[in-house]
Amino acid sequence: MEKNYFAAIVLAEFDSPIDALVSLCVPADEALNLVSASWQNDASGCLANTLDGGRRVAAIRTPENRWAACYAFPDSPCVTYAEAEHRLKKRLKKGRRGIIGML
Q1: Out of 47, 51, 55, 72, which could bridge 59 as a Cys pair, Cβ 3.0 to 4.6 Å?
Q2: Is residue 44 over pLDDT 80?
Q3: Where are the alpha helices (DSSP H) in the chain?
């Protein structure tokens, strides 16, 4: 399976993926469904969703084992991590933090 990387802007960090998704305005029942569906893949470190209106969001596991609630930009996926980092740097503005997600 091919890995696709994408840039994401971190809004906040949480202890659970459900809290991260709900903070992004994903309905709680939908967040629970996303998390439970991800349990089939133990390596799942990214849960992505599209909100009404088209905004792409994601809960991404951080290196510290927390969950970052993010605005995601997976529409133009990158084949390499380095390419995704380059695109992320273009999106970052003063005071913003970013992270790379993988689908």
Answers
A1: 47
A2: no
A3: 17-23, 28-38, 81-91
Of all helices (H) and strands (E), which one includes residue 56?
Answer: strand 56-61
Task: Count structural domains, the chain.
Answer: 1
Q: How far is CA 54 from CA 57, 71, 72, 90, in A?
A: 9, 11, 11, 22
8 A C-beta contact, residue 11 and residue 70:
yes
Residue 36's pLDDT is 87
- The contacts of residue 62 (CB under 8 Å, 6+ apart) are 13, 68, 99
The predicted model scores a pTM of 0.89
| Helix or strand run (H / E) with residue 97 | strand 97-102
